[in-house]
Amino acid sequence: MNLNLKNKTAFVCGSTQGIGKASAVELAILGAKIVLIARNEASLKNVVSEINAINNLENDYIVVDFSDPAQLRATLAKYIDKNGAAHILVNNTGGPPAGKISDAKTHEFLSAFNNHLICNHILAEAVLPFMKEEKFGRIINIISTSVKQPLKGLGVSNTIRAAVANWAKTLSMEVAADGVTVNNVLPGATSTARLQGIISNKAVKNNEPIDKISQEMMNEIPAGRFAEAEEIAAAVAFLASPAAAYINGINVPVDGGRTSCL
Ligand SMILES: NC(=O)c1ccc[n+]([C@@H]2O[C@H](COP(=O)([O-])OP(=O)(O)OC[C@H]3O[C@@H](n4cnc5c(N)ncnc54)[C@H](OP(=O)(O)O)[C@@H]3O)[C@@H](O)[C@H]2O)c1
């Protein structure tokens, strides 16, 4: 099985922590050069140093805030003009705030749509010409199992995730003949700052201890535990590899068996 990513470059978004950072590390282990993308420059510099020690390459970063798609487009164009594009794009950013859909305000949907779908599209537009030229491209979108089964209390997120999944499926059919695949990784509950935030909010709202909320969540997972970010990243790295060339346009839940449909 060919998992070799030497001489490949990967743009990995939302990569200062959590699933994005873990994905950058796994891709670097397979030999890819990494360009990290997120807002916090100090954290980006720290992660670049960690990754330099893994693949012995000159990895890089781009500072950008996905809440400003125009800024993303301009910054990306400037970067690619100077440094070139990427063979692998991992689309990922912070999840929309939790809350019931009946409480959601219209501007929250617009903001999540911009941060997720519009930014994914801007990134794909920027890298696709290079991927097609190279006859090798991998676009991997970190979404959520809510694509298959909406999660309670994540109204805006559930809505936007479905749009991103359908965007990806449609794109996958248009670019397959050029050697480009587009797939979605759907994490279940994964031990990251995002999950800690969701658990803490629920604990405050229900006036219950954090441990009780965590245990209740774990009871719904057949594996009986939360995922580690590295376990999500392993799926990302496999989908990015040459070995996964014929896997295209699918959703891959990595959720310990929690999603109760196929
Ligand atoms: N953890 C879970 O249990 C779980 C389950 C299902 C789905 N997911 C989804 O998977 C994705 C990643 O989750 P995670 O738990 O790894 O999240 P996380 O720990 O909150 O990390 C989010 C990353 O995105 C970056 N980011 C956040 N807002 C950004 C913005 N406006 N512009 C650019 N970068 C931004 C952050 O870096 P900076 O702060 O430096 O920008 C950080 O590196 C999210 O969409 C999440 O909802 C997570």
How would you explain this protein's 3D organization?
The protein has 262 residues and is an alpha/beta fold. The protein has two domains: 9-188 and 228-253, NAD(P)-binding Rossmann-like Domain (Rossmann fold), CATH 3.40.50; 189-226, no CATH class. 49% of the residues lie in helices and 14% in strands. The protein has helices spanning 18-29, 41-55, 69-83, 106-134, 155-175, 193-206, 210-219, 229-240; strands at residues 9-13, 33-38, 60-63, 88-91, 137-142, 180-187, 251-254. It has a seven-stranded parallel sheet, with helices on both faces. α4 links the parallel β4 (88-91) and β5 (137-142). α1 (18-29) packs parallel to α2 and α4 (106-134) packs parallel to α5 (155-175). The longest helix is centred in the middle third of the chain and has 29 residues, at 106-134. It binds NADP nicotinamide-adenine-dinucleotide phosphate. NADP nicotinamide-adenine-dinucleotide phosphate is lined by residues 14-20, 38-40, 43, 65-67, 92-95, 115, 142, 144, 187, 189-190, 192-195.
